[in-house]
Design a protein that fits this description.
CATH class of the largest domain: Alpha Beta
Number of helices: 8
Strand content: 15-25%
CATH architecture of the largest domain: 4-Layer Sandwich
Number of domains: 2
Distance between the termini: 55 Å
Largest sheet: 8 strands, mixed
Number of strands: 24
CATH topology of the largest domain: Purple Acid Phosphatase, chain A, domain 2
Bound molecules: 2-acetamido-2-deoxy-beta-D-glucopyranose
Radius of gyration: 22 Å
Structural class: alpha+beta
């Protein structure tokens, strides 16, 4: 694009040679008429600004903020600008002002969420446990101890490739925790995959993996709303569960990047629409699009009994387990109020996403199975007829039956009264897939694990107010390896509470 006159004259452009190479551009829905535009720069931007408009050649509007934030050891600033007054289901063009110094970016485009109650069919992509792809993450090689099943075959497409090539098929991307796996830097070094660095310089490797991930995601996140929630790897300080046996060092408590503790990096990087859904930060909030109400929950902190303690988070969590906000019941009270307020005539579908599962064919360890989540969330899911619960955390794919209090709904997918559960943490990341228990639990309906050596993501399609299809898309070739359709009559639910 030509440098627009407006760009050059109205704004004090911040000179930063390499900012253009590191924009990590991402957008997120914000209420019925807003879009949050976020991007990173190496320098502080006093007044982050975004030009926008309905025509690519006339970015006649400008939105600005004073939000350019960072934290100790971060190598970048996170800029956030909210654009408001947008029409639903409409494509707009935009360009962050500070991006165009050295690289002449074309304007990007995003499409706003559907009007609440719009019954047009649409699809969304859902991932968890994705991780950086390439030389700092999942690739065709790995370090010592990584199963050969979990390494990409030469030429094999990864999940980010698949999400990019499938963009025309989904309207937004929902990522329910575990992003870059930057905390794996040490594990990758100890396993001989990355060159060793010193503990003091470790943060540079950490930040490099983090920046790489968000840049790899940019082809998707610059034009599809990227809705996110917290996972343990946004706060783990165990660096992937690594002990350096050769030197008798357990790094668990000793190497903890500020970007990991208390979810600091995660809090800086995103601005989810909790302000317009009475939620809390990027931790719990909700939004609507068309005939669906989406709820992001936090399985990492702030459960009804307080917060998940170190034992439940995996034993070596250290300070990262500190609660974000330890107000007892804050999240659960919010969830009930949010569910109660849903108008099922407009949004018959209610879909919940959270990081940790509880119904899963997996060894019964609290580091994976979140019983405290089940205790506080499940009663509300049942009471308010949540249709589908999506989780990750275990690096497998398992589609379960609709279940309530451990009992399989006899109606299965034919108008069940229990929530349907699906766990898909099989998107990728450095050391790949896990193993499910054999035989599977009785509620298991379809599953893939390390034995199948297949990475993939979830595609949800809302056909109308009664039919919803979930598909597992194999990243390698974009084929659907599993498909199941839920029928819900959704009749007069608002009368039955
Ligand atoms: C929006 O941007 C994407 C690239 O991210 C491009 O493929 C697409 O054609 C653009 N859409 C419009 C309507 O310009
Ligand atoms: C890094 O150090 C570990 C021992 O802590 C060693 O096993 C590994 O091979 C080293 N990696 C490289 C790339 O030198
Ligand atoms: C490893 O270090 C711990 C203390 O951190 C010590 O108790 C233990 O004896 C050491 N083990 C070996 C094999 O040196
Ligand atoms: C995390 O947040 C808590 C509560 O605000 C605070 O007490 C604690 O010091 C923080 N920990 C770190 C490592 O920043
Ligand atoms: C799983 O472990 C929890 C405690 O961690 C226990 O309460 C529960 O009964 C166990 N469930 C099964 C099916 O073994
Ligand atoms: C996944 O792998 C298991 C074990 O090898 C096999 O029995 C099963 O058929 C595979 N599933 C698919 C869908 O390929
Ligand atoms: C696509 O890839 C998956 C594994 O990722 C494989 O099971 C399947 O057979 C492939 N399908 C086609 C049509 O190549
Ligand atoms: C809803 O969509 C499903 C799947 O496409 C279709 O079979 C069904 O007939 C549709 N229902 C109505 C009322 O259109």
């Amino acid at each position: 694009m030509k440098k627009s006159g407006v760009l050059a004259t109205l704004l004090p452009l911040v000179a930063a040679d390499s900012d253009a190479a590191n924009p990590q551009l991402r957008v997120a829905f914000h209420g019925d008429d807003g879009m949050m535009v976020s991007w990173n720069t190496f320098n502080h931007v006093p007044r982050p600004s975004v030009f926008w408009g309905k025509s690519k050649d006339h970015l006649t509007n400008i939105a600005s903020s004073a939000v350019s934030v960072t934290y100790p050891t971060s190598t970048t600033y996170n800029n956030h600008v909210l654009i408001q007054g947008l029409k639903p289901d409409t494509t707009y063009y935009y360009l962050p002002a500070q991006l165009n110094e050295d690289t002449c970016y074309e304007p990007f485009n995003f499409t706003t969420s559907r009007r609440v109650g719009d019954k047009t069919p649409f699809s969304v992509a859902v991932v968890a446990d994705l991780g950086t792809m390439g030389s700092e993450g999942l690739s065709t090689s790995a370090g010592k101890g990584v199963s050969s099943n979990n390494i990409l075959r030469p030429g094999e497409k990864n999940t980010i490739d698949s999400l990019i090539s499938s963009m025309p098929e989904y309207e937004f991307l929902w990522h329910v925790g575990d992003f870059a796996y930057a905390d794996y830097w040490l594990k990758e070094e100890i396993q001989g995959y990355l060159p060793n660095t010193t503990v003091e310089e470790g943060y540079k490797v950490y930040e490099s993996i983090l920046n790489e991930f968000y840049n790899e995601m940019m082809p998707v996140t610059a034009s599809r709303a990227y809705m996110v929630g917290p996972g343990n790897h946004e706060a783990n300080c165990d660096n992937g569960g690594t002990t350096d046996k050769a030197h008798n060092i357990t790094y668990g408590l000793s190497i903890c990047m500020p970007g990991q503790t208390n979810f600091t990096g995660f809090k800086n990087h995103f601005r989810m629409p909790s302000d317009v859904s009475r939620g809390t930060g990027n931790f719990w909030y909700s939004w609507n699009s068309g005939m669906a109400h989406f709820i992001q929950l936090d399985t990492e902190t702030d459960l009804g009994h307080g917060f998940i303690g170190p034992d439940e988070i995996g034993g070596t969590e250290g300070e990262g387990a500190s609660p974000v906000n330890s107000k007892m019941n804050a999240q659960v009270n919010w969830l009930e109020a949010d569910l109660k307020a849903v108008d099922r005539r407009k949004t018959p579908w209610v879909i919940v996403g959270g990081h940790r599962p509880w119904y899963l064919s997996y060894k019964n360890v609290t580091s994976t199975i979140c019983w405290s989540c089940k205790d506080v969330f499940e009663p509300l899911f049942i009471k308010y007829d949540v249709d589908l619960v999506l989780t990750g955390h275990a690096h497998i794919y398992e589609r379960q039956a609709p279940i309530a209090e451990g009992k399989i709904d006899p109606r299965e997918l034919n108008n069940p009264t229990s929530p349907w559960y699906i766990t898909n943490g099989a998107a990728g990341h450095y050391d790949g897939l896990d193993t499910l228990q054999s035989p599977r639990q009785q509620f298991s309906r379809f599953s893939l694990d390390t034995n199948n050596a297949t990475y993939g993501w979830s595609k949800l399609t809302f056909h109308n107010s009664t039919h919803l299809t979930h598909e597992f898309v194999a990243s390698n070739n974009n084929t659907v390896l599993d498909s199941a359709t839920l029928y819900k009559s959704h009749k007069c639910e608002w009368l039955e509470r």
